[in-house]
Amino acid sequence: MHGLMMHKQLLISSLIEHADRHHGDTPIVSRRVEGDIHRYTFRDCHRRARQMASALTGLGVQPADRIGTLAWNGYRHLELYYGIGGMGAIVHTINPRLHEDQVAYIANHAEDQYIFFDMTFLPLIKLIAGRCHTVKAFIAMTDQAHMPTDAGIDNLLCYEDLLQQGSCDYAWPDLDEDAACTLCYTSGTTGNPKGVLYSHRSSLLHTYAAALPDALNCSARDVILPVVPMFHVNAWGLPYIACMVGAKLVFPGPALDGQSLFELLEAEQVTLSAGVPTVWQGLLGHLEVTGQRFSSMKRTIIGGAACPTAMLHTFQEIFGVAVLHVWGMTELSPIGTIGTLKARHLVMSPAERNAVQSKQGRAVFGVDMKIVGTDGVELPWDGATSGDLMVRGPWVVRDYFRNEGECSPLLEHAGQTWFLTGDVATIDGDGFMQITDRSKDVIKSGGEWIGSIDLENIALSHPSVAQAACIAAKHAKWDERPLLIIVRKAQAALTREDLLAFYDGKIAKWWTPDDVVFVDTIPLGATGKVLKNCLREQFGDHLLVKVVS
Ligand code: AMP
Fold first, then answer.
1. Residue 8 pLDDT greater than 90, yes or no
2. How far is the centre of ligand 1, averaged over its atoms, from the C-alpha of 328 (Å)?
3. Which sequence positions are flagged as catalytic?
């Protein structure tokens, strides 16, 4: 027998509709690319999002069409989140920090019909425009006064002009909640970037769970500033959460340095912020120099990479800002675990509490997790035994977008289907998961991925290189940086400088390895694969002990 409750589809458009109806006057504040501050309200945002949906319909955009964005955190990007997703098309947020070849690959793989971009990224658009085969027009997210005069792009449109063509009377369609609404590519696995395609339903369920008190604890009394980019897993869901709870939103635009962030945090009396550890290092460094203190910030969400214990201490003991240490993945929409303390932790000393919070935290309701040993047996939650971390849940990826011919990211274990995260972890008796290693072959620098395979392939194409391995070496500022381990061909006189210069133009500049170590042999496993864990053990601290020029 079925229950007798209404069946209302869980849709992205309902979030902005709710925000307009119940929190219509709540402000959204954005630092624009031009440097000035823009202010309006949820009501304005809803009107313009509908207008944009109507304008896109006029352009011929159909449900399920992919529409790319190359944009900072700002109000126009938010309008696109709701305008595109709400009309049934798919917002494809593209990471502008990638090399132009990868951006073009991603746009073509997604078959983007239009690409919206912030003016900062005009040079990137010029590089890729002729290579994006499905894109009908590029839309500059600005007004007529700021449009470039000599961009050299044939099919260039202006955001504000396009918006004016749309009707404010547009009504959101009643979509199937399982329809896709957002697409985000991750380089977090080897090979080409892979697209994670979120549905309306998965996004809504993630939003409910993420807003809970023991999760991000968001409310209408909050002022939220997401430093984490909207091009990276929907800024961890904060643009959705803010609408659900009616929190004021503050967008930093492109100004992510310590001083600009601090000014905005203070001016807008932000209570909750979110970002990767590297961003907070910049902010804390600024405060150390100026001696300034936060007057409103109560909590900060730190994730994307492990939060160092020293950072926990500084935020909590020196500045009185509670840290929410979060672990997640693009494949998890992204939130998996959050380090909110249980009652029994509250009586601990600050140092003991920080040790608990250094772990990646407890699973939020909706995410089931376990650790499994190399023999396939589930491991105990004793805080000491580590194994491969697996997760399952309604906002965990089922397959990658257009993953034709590639193997599934899922596996069967003990009669259930699980997603293998590529992280290696322990789980303690309180359910706190701690990442101890990573089995996937990637480097995470300042919260952004660098593909070790790509770097190895380039090294191997150098005529003097016999063998190459690239590992994540620990780095004081960026958490991890690429380090090349190289076996030279006999008699080859290859130098570190020659090899690093060989990367020029082949990858984004910031992907260039920090150093090269020349060795006689590289350890191989039984199947001939490089034993990266041995190399990490041997050379993992290389960049900490050696100051590289
Ligand atoms: P992404 O898909 O770019 O969000 O990256 C997800 C990966 O980042 C995870 O699989 C982890 O390897 C790493 N990661 C995310 N959050 C944390 C954290 N709090 N501590 C350590 N590693 C993390």
1. yes
2. 6
3. 186, 331, 444, 449
